[in-house]
Write a structure and sequence with these properties.
- The protein is an alpha/beta fold and 228 residues long.
- The chain has a single domain, classed as 3-Layer(aba) Sandwich (Rossmann fold).
- The protein is built from 7 helices and 12 strands.
- Strand 3, helix 1 and strand 4 form a beta-alpha-beta unit.
- This is Methyltransferase domain-containing protein.
- InterPro entries: Methyltranfer_dom, METTL24.
- Pfam families: Methyltransf_22.
Length: 228
């Protein structure tokens, strides 16, 4: 894994990606950045980790007319957040089996797509404190073509060892980046921000440091946008 910087995101992973017009969707902690483009129809989007701020979901649904699914096992809302947004009190799978057993309901991302018979995902957003490290494994096992059916992937990578405690977590992050590149989803936008001081106090995994991955304090919660 090469150095990742906000100034030259296209140099990372060697991706010769064309720039996109980046738009801000949502506000506050719920904000994520996307490429401004009309999604293919019919369109759906998945939003894992909405917590108490689902402004991203309501704004994207209202502006595009896409059907949305918001996931979070830590909060409880009515099933219908908005006219086009359904809430599920469900977690995405984690590499930590004890954590998977802790939640009332757990799904893999490709498994949910298959269950709902969705052909294409306009946006997959993941901000769920660690679930991002399991998706590559789930894709490889359940649906190797999954990423070819995703138009944009907005993910927050949580670098502190609290969320990446094992070598497997680091390998699966590299696996994820390789899958995205192979499917033509190139890095379009980077925003490196801080996690909480408590989380950052756990430090960074040595394998990441050896790979020159950005692990400095105030840069450990990393919002990345991948798109074609």
């Amino acid at each position: 894994m090469r150095d990742l910087t906000a100034k030259k995101p296209t140099s990372w992973l060697g991706a010769d990606s064309l720039p996109c017009e980046v738009v801000h969707v949502g506000k506050g902690w719920g904000e994520h950045r996307l490429c401004k483009r009309a999604p293919a129809r019919p369109c759906v989007f998945y939003s894992f980790g909405i917590n108490r701020d689902y402004s991203f979901d309501t704004q994207y649904a209202n502006e595009t007319g896409c059907r949305g699914f918001g996931f979070d096992p830590t909060v409880n809302y009515l099933a219908q957040l908005e006219k086009n947004v359904t809430f599920l009190r469900m977690a995405a799978t984690s590499l930590d089996e004890n954590l998977n057993k802790h939640w009332y309901a757990v799904t893999s991302v490709p498994g949910f797509k298959k269950w709902q018979h969705h052909q294409q995902i306009a946006v997959l957003k993941m901000d769920c404190e660690g679930c991002e490290f399991a998706i590559a494994k789930d894709v490889a096992k359940e649906d190797p073509d999954f990423w070819w059916q995703v138009e944009q992937f907005a993910v927050e990578i949580h670098v502190p060892k609290k969320f990446m405690p094992t070598n497997e977590h680091v390998r699966e992050l590299a696996h994820l980046f390789a899958q995205l590149e192979q499917a033509g989803l190139h890095l379009r936008d980077v925003m490196l921000t801080g996690c909480s001081p408590t989380d950052e106090a756990s430090g960074c995994h040595p394998m990441l440091m050896q790979a020159n991955f950005p692990c400095e304090p105030t840069k450990m919660c990393q919002n990345l946008l991948f798109a074609r």
